[in-house]
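quick one before i forget lol
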Amino acid sequence: MTPWSPRGHIIGSYGLPALAAVLFLVFSVVLPDTFPTRDNVSSILSNQSIPALLALGATIPIAIGKFDLSLGYGLGLAHVLVLYLIVEEGTPWPLAALAVVLGGALVGALNGAVVEFARIDSLIATLGTGSIMYALTGWLTDGSRIVPGPEGLPASFTGLYDARFLGLPVPAFYVLAAVVVLWVVLERLPFGRYLYVVGSNPRAAAIIGIPTHRYSVYAFAGSGLVVGISGVLLAAQQQIGNPSVGLDYLLPAFVGALLGSTTIKPGRANALGTLVAVSVLAVGLAGIGQLGAQFWATPLFNGGTLLLAVGLAGYAARRRLRTRATTDRNPPDEPSGPSAARAAEAR
């Protein structure tokens, strides 16, 4: 099968959505009483909303060829900070949530500045800033949990996670809205095209006048903004500030983002691909959980899928390069006859 064959393109682009459907059908047959039920689907949508949002946040820096390892640490700090402001400082929750979301964007921009202007590899830089965030989380909580008083948290705040719309959990619509926004930004706006150009060839991007450093900072700021939103949602879900909870979400976020770059538009990070990848992970984890898998099955599944995602992403990128090289070596036949003469005169 040639690299550019239509069948290979279809498999590469839509194989993962087909896998998600197959997994759902298989688990529905094996677990007919519990898996294909409305309650189970609602549970999957609710439980996977925060990992899905984080995966979308991780997708933005990946589009420029960078990685933000501070996602999990930032999530932990954001959700603790929201509860600290509400419980300890008595801040109205809308103001506390807004402050945390904007703070997440600011921290993301600082990450981008460290990567671009200090010229530190993104993996190392964000691991370092993430460790600092973890330290701030510990300092803020003194290593203990933030527990609301007997009156609890405002119902309007916890409703950010608990409410339902059209019979489905509201967090599922947050994810859908984030996918739509990110898809429009990356696929339909010049901003997204610039990000892809910076990610594929920073030197060429700089030559044609794209401010590569600025767009890298923008990408990390967008990731931080999503982390802040996810932190607010996690606080509404947990209702207790746990300083160590954020790290559990780091690996699933990267698995979803990297696996998503192998589908819909293979070889590059994209919002729809990330959504499909998260769906595969959600269905797989829900299925093996209902089959009675041990506690270690979840990290095993995530780790194995991450290795598979990285391998498939590398293959998709190499396949795209081979296709491009083949096209360059064998350009379409030049037109001949009168039309060719007219084209030559026009040139």
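fyi The CA atoms of residues 44 and 88 lie 33 Å apart.
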